[in-house]
Every structure is written in C-alpha cells, then in structure tokens.
Amino acid sequence: MSAYKFDRIKVLIVDDNLHMRKMLATIVQAFGVTSIYEAPNGVQAWDQLRKNNPDIIFLDWMMPGMTGLEFTRMVRTSPDCPNPYVSIIMVTGYTQLEHVHLARDAGVTEFLAKPISANTVLARVTAVIENPRAFVRTPDYFGPCRRRRHDENYEGPERRGTGTPKGRKDQSAQTENRGAP
Amino acid sequence: MTDKPIEIFTPPNTLKAKVGGGSGGKPTLDMSAIKRAEQALETLKSEFGDWIAADVQMLLSSRDAFIAEPTAERQGDLYRASHDLRGQARTFEFPLVERVAASLCRLLDAPTAVKALPLVDAHVGAIRVIVRDNIKDRMNATASTLAKELETRVTEFLTQT
Q: Which of A31, A114, A161 lies nearest to residue B37, judging by beta carbons?
C-alpha cells in the first residue's frame, strides 16, 4: 500500500474542549496533515468552513450553543456551504445505537467513539477516503446515504423505491420514487 | 401514500483524488503513520495531569453554578463538563473517573436531576478525590466501591422518579 499524501488535505477540528482539539490535531499532524484549523463552537466552525473549505471535519457532538448535530445539518443544507459533501467525522462519548442513528440521520459520515487513539482516528479517515458514501436527497433529508453498505446479494423488497436492488451500480443522479415506508 | 422523489447520487471522490495512495482494495492502515501519531501522543502525556486537573476544575465550577442556580441551562453545562471527563479520562489514565463521570452523565440526563443535588455533589466529590489522590488503578478497592455505590444510587433515583 502506498502512503496517503495527507499534506494535500485540510482538516477542521471542532470541539469546545481545548484538550481534545489538541489531541486530535497532534494525531492528524503526525499523519502528515499540515493545514489544520480549529474552532471551539459551531459559529466559529462555520466561519472556518466558509473561509478554508476543509476536506474533513472532526466534530464534537456536545458543544454549548450549536450542537454537532445542528452544525452537520447546516453543512448539508445551507446554500452558503462551500461543500455540502464534506466528510464529517463525529467524535463523541455517546456509544449507544440510538445516538449513532441520530448522528447518521443528521448527515454525519463516520462516527468516532471516545476515548480516541491513533488507530481509531486513522481507521475513520481511511474509511472516508476509501468508502465514500452515496448521497441522498429527499424532501426530509440531505446527506450521506443512511444505508451503511450496499448488499449486492440483497433480494428483499426495495423499500426506498420501485427499482430492483440487485445489480444496481453507480446511482449517479438517479431519481427514484418512494414506495413502501 | 404520496410518491416523493428521492435522488441518490455519488459525488466525486475529491478526497481520494487529493491524497492518492491507499490499497486500491480493502483499506489497510498505514502502520508508520500510526506509529508517528502514537509517539506524538506519548510526548503529550506529560501534560495529561494538568489537562485532567483543568477538566476537574471546570466540573467543580459547573457544579457550583448548578447548585446555586439549578436551571436546565446550568444542568446542561454540568452535563457537558461531565461528558468531557467521561470521554477523555481513560486517555488521561484515570479509568475510575471515566466510570464515575458516566454515572453522573446518566443522572444528569434526567430532567429530574435537580431533585438529587446531594447525589450530583457526591459524584463530583468522588471525581475530585480520585484525581487528587492520583488513583489510576481501575481495581482500587475504595474508589471502585464508591463508584459502584454511586451507580446504585443513580439507578435507585431514576427508578423512583
């Protein structure tokens, strides 16, 4: 495997806790990232996002004022966002499935549980590089496809539309109709 | 049932285009990058004592503010301080702080936590003592007994309310 050239990407770290920001910055810097921006809250993060257009955002869930979920929804839906497809890695102490679902429904790309380590951070970064998610736009949602994996062998009903799931390839700009709920 | 249009599309993978490399198949981790990061974190360890002391100080001031004015906003502030400790204490090598902070988060998750101020205070006091006495052993008899007792009291409180 050839190494990633991390010096070509920009990373934004959003966390109200200075220590967590420092730890994450230390880890991604060691990976080779040189353009690292930090913000302690959603408002400053939004400014950084518009100014620097990062490739990956590490985002805390619990912040005073705008929460990580609210920030994610803003990134995905605001017409002022420079890149609504930006990879968002939610960093949180929440590990219950319901929280994972909430994060996923808000448009988070990956989920990184605390305590973090160099291993887990690189695993999530690798995941957003190697396995980009398809995006979905519905009247109620815009963000990464909430189906984590596409199963080529799935033979059940296509609940999202009327098309056949088997053999479905790249779904670029595909439009479907919602079938069963 | 109304038909609502759903658009599914794959944006260009600009991230992959920028970083290049990778396995081209099943992703594998770059062990040299991990090693560099672990070494960098090792150098940070000397600061962990100061960091957890600062986080505990934030917890204490949030506790004081909540007890003086037990509003939902102050409860939220205390929850965040506790949540930070829950997420980072193990990294800072204080696993029992993580455990007690998790119990405190569970208590503060309840809107009725304002009725259990002594129990809130007991959690904060336990965390302060564990850090003050530098108890890093998860099996420390006194501290783990205290943690278990706090967890039991929280369960009892949440059952009653």
A: A31
